[in-house]
Specification:
Largest sheet of chain C: 3 strands, antiparallel
Mean pLDDT of chain A: 93
CATH class of the largest domain in chain C: Alpha Beta
Strand order of the largest sheet of chain A: 1-2
Structural class of chain A: mainly alpha
Helix content of chain C: 25-40%
Number of strands of chain C: 3
Strand content of chain C: 15-25%
Radius of gyration of chain C: 20 Å
Largest interface: A-B, 50 and 50 residues
Largest sheet of chain A: 2 strands, antiparallel
Helix content of chain A: 55-70%
CATH superfamily of the largest domain in chain C: Phenylacetic acid degradation B
Strand order of the largest sheet of chain C: 2-1-3
CATH class of chain A: Mainly Alpha
Mean pLDDT of chain C: 94
Order of helices and strands of chain A: HHHHHHHHHHEEHHH
Shape of chain A: globular
CATH architecture of chain A: Up-down Bundle
Radius of gyration of chain A: 21 Å
Number of domains of chain C: 2
Distance between the termini of chain A: 28 Å
CATH architecture of the largest domain in chain C: Roll
Number of helices of chain C: 2
Structural class of chain C: alpha+beta
Distance between the termini of chain C: 32 Å
Oligomer: heterotrimer
CATH topology of chain A: Ferritin
Order of helices and strands of chain C: EEHEH
Shape of chain C: elongated
Number of helices of chain A: 13
């Protein structure tokens, strides 16, 4: 299949490993799904300290279950990416460890206090879920199938995040104040979740033309603000003055792009933002520390039937 | 010995309350602290699949802690008193479960799990006929999850012991963990321990459980070509836990290794920082 | 030798188990499956897998989803009484459905 035919046929769940797809499609899809998978892993890495620091047994269970789900989503997504035949999971995980793998801007920032957790667990996850729901209609069938399961599970994450926010904002004045401060720190990053406006986005056009991406950054940002600005206000959070955002006469949100730190955003995109580098290295360290286990079990990796698969032919 | 009669939660005397409290804390604290350590493997396990499995085991154990702690609601103890506002020197868990994992030491995690899960299997059997209804009622639910834990540990042990690297690491972990594992069978307080059995709260004594544990664990570890620490474990009469191998601190009596203080400080950090006075409940029922 | 057969009815859907065939090798298994399992039911694709390579773990071996309360991992546990984004509502209804089926199983 050539790229013109791909563009012509592009529709929800249209292409599967049985199709002979051009390299351009397979590479673009790999880049997109790998980014998504990496983000799951790095999001989990960011939240894991709060399994321990959660202020109750039930919250601890929920954090553990959420981090577990995210690793599970990583597992699904790396598989969906592997089926494109461009990179193996091992290569993708190694790239992530070595600072070559890209992932979501928000997960490059450190998260040190519990009051920050709903910024990721509610707002970032809420944003991610808006996007993921549209990807159930992506053109790469294994990716769409992964999204089915991710979206099935993800409702728990967002509601768990909202529940934490609710508790904090109904807590002591100190809790409310600390939460507001965390919100102010995270808000611009959350807005940047959807990347620059469409006219500045590099990968969108192709990904949209072959059906990988279903909605543009701008459309998703609108949908996010529509849903989550009222939520933030409902819980008593004040939307920071900067970046300036307002609704225009047509009811669409306008974000003053110049109020956002795009230098930082693109530094992050290159994996060169200092705290993010620390997080990448931290995870790399953990991955290397258990290399011996993978080596041990791969040494005698034979299918359960006792015969290598080709014997079946 | 046990009279075979059930205790009435509404009408416990001082001796019964104390025995119940000690037993509940032994059980709950073990599960709670082990789960806490297991979660260290989240996002750090050898593969994504093994990460998911160990996370699940951690959640299971934490859920069991939740069940055991809830039994102590009958003697007026809530989660804040049992965990978040408790003096760390009053925790009754075995020192086996509080040890930090050396980085990347999956052999430690797996071996610890095996040593613990066998002990847990035996003690759950000894609680099936407990004279305290809530304890007896909850055993089945917990056993339903423990079978997987034990098989998981055994499967991994067999695979790790198959390689040179794995065997070496297992041996080191065994040398380090074995004395701590023996504290699983130590009393919180000798008199109260006697009451626990006499009142029928548990139907086996600690030496009986210890002996049975050794009779299962030792042959299995030896079958993996591991050298089991000797020191009077098997004599002419069979297996017995002897005092000489026990570590200086026993956990059960409230004495702990240094790592426990750090762990406790970390896990109560948010609660203290936010000046909470009540841990948040998400699920109403235990 | 026996081959398990999985059928996908339409492009984009899941391959689900639909039966098996006797065949000496993979090529023949595919040809036999196409007739035996694809000649009438709507079929877009079939997979064939040697039966002996299929591992099974069932509810006698393990209690799927556990035996203790795992309410914390279900959306329904979080009773927020606020409007939820449509994708969160959809997730919740899918989870409710799964929970109901688990209860009936």
């Amino acid at each position: 299949m050539d790229i013109e035919e791909v563009k012509e046929r592009a529709g929800p769940r249209e292409f599967s490993p049985a199709d002979d797809l051009p390299e351009e499609y397979r590479k673009a899809a790999t880049r997109m799904i790998e980014f998504h998978a990496n983000s799951e892993i790095m999001g989990a890495y960011l939240e894991r300290p709060f399994i321990r620091q959660a202020p109750s047994i039930d919250r601890k269970l929920a954090f553990s279950a959420k981090v577990q789900d995210e690793i599970g989503h990583g597992q699904l997504l790396y598989r969906a990416a592997e089926t494109l035949g461009v990179k193996t999971r091992e290569e993708m995980l190694d790239d992530l460890a070595n600072g070559k793998g890209k992932f979501l801007n928000c997960f490059h920032y450190p998260m040190t206090e519990y009051v920050e957790t709903p910024m990721v667990a509610f707002f970032v996850d809420g944003a991610a879920m808006r996007r993921q729901a549209t990807l159930r209609r992506t053109s790469w069938e294994p990716y769409a199938h992964a999204m089915d399961k991710v979206c099935f599970e993800e409702g728990f994450h967002v509601k768990h995040g909202e529940d934490i926010l609710r508790t904090l904002m109904n807590g002591s004045r100190k809790e409310q104040q600390l939460t507001q401060e965390a919100f102010e720190e995270w808000w611009p990053r959350i807005i940047q979740f959807f990347g620059p406006t469409d006219d500045k986005s590099t990968h969108h056009d192709f990904a949209a033309s072959v059906g990988l991406k279903q909605k543009s950054n701008d459309e998703l940002r609108q949908a996010f603000l529509d849903q989550y600005v009222p939520k933030a206000r409902k819980y008593g959070l004040e939307i920071p003055d900067y970046p300036r955002i307002h609704k225009n006469d047509e009811g669409r949100w306008v974000v003053e792009e110049d109020d956002l730190d795009w230098d930082e955003f693109f530094t992050i995109a290159k994996n060169e933002y200092e705290p993010g580098v620390g997080q990448i290295d931290g995870r790399k360290h953990a991955q290397e520390a258990v290399q011996w286990v993978r080596d041990t079990i791969e040494a005698d990796n034979v299918p359960a039937g006792g015969q290598p698969p080709q014997a079946a032919d | 010995m046990s009279t075979g009669e059930m205790l009435d939660p509404e009408d416990l005397d001082e001796r019964e309350r104390t025995a119940l409290e000690h037993l509940g804390k032994r059980l709950g604290d073990d599960e709670f602290v082990l789960a806490e350590r297991y979660t260290e493997w989240q996002v750090r396990s050898p593969s994504l699949e093994s990460d998911l499995a160990l996370s699940n085991i951690a959640q299971d154990e934490l859920g069991h802690a939740r069940l055991w702690y809830d039994v102590l609601d009958d003697v007026g103890l809530d989660e804040e008193e049992l965990v978040y506002e408790r003096d760390p020197d009053t925790f009754r868990h075995s020192t086996l479960v509080e040890q930090p994992f050396p980085e990347g030491d999956w052999a430690d995690a797996i071996l610890r799990s095996y040593l613990y899960d066998i002990a847990e299997k035996l003690r759950l059997e000894a609680l099936e006929q407990s004279s305290y209804p809530k304890i007896a009622d909850r055993v089945g639910k917990i056993q339903g999850e423990e079978e997987y834990h034990l098989e998981h540990a055994q499967n991994w042990l067999e695979r790790l012991a198959d390689g040179e690297d794995g065997t070496g690491r297992l041996q080191e972990a065994l040398d380090r963990l074995f004395p701590h594992a023996l504290t699983l069978f130590e009393p919180t307080d000798p008199d109260v321990e006697e009451d626990i059995v006499e009142l029928g709260l548990r139907t086996a004594t600690l030496p009986e459980l210890g002996e049975e544990w050794l009779s299962i664990v030792l042959p299995f570890l030896e079958s993996l070509d591991l050298d089991v620490p000797e020191s009077g474990l098997a004599d002419a009469d069979g297996y017995a836990v002897t005092g000489e191998m026990l570590p200086a601190v026993r956990g059960r009596d409230g004495s702990h290794t240094e790592s426990w203080d750090d762990l406790f400080a970390d896990l109560t950090h948010t609660y203290r920082e936010l000046e909470r006075d009540r841990p948040t409940k998400i699920m109403e029922q235990p | 030798m026996i081959w398990e057969v999985f059928r996908q009815e339409e492009n984009g859907e899941y391959h689900t188990h639909c039966g098996n065939v006797h065949a000496p090798d993979r090529e023949m298994a595919k040809q036999f499956a196409a007739i035996q399992h694809g000649r009438r039911k709507p079929t877009n694709s079939l997979w064939v897998v040697p039966k002996e390579e299929v591992g099974e773990i069932d509810s006698d071996d393990v209690t799927f989803g556990g035996t203790t309360d795992k309410g914390y991992r279900w959306t329904m546990t979080y009773n927020l009484q606020t409007d939820q984004a449509e994708e969160v509502v959809e997730s919740e209804s899918e989870q409710e459905q799964a929970d109901k089926q688990r209860g009936e199983a």
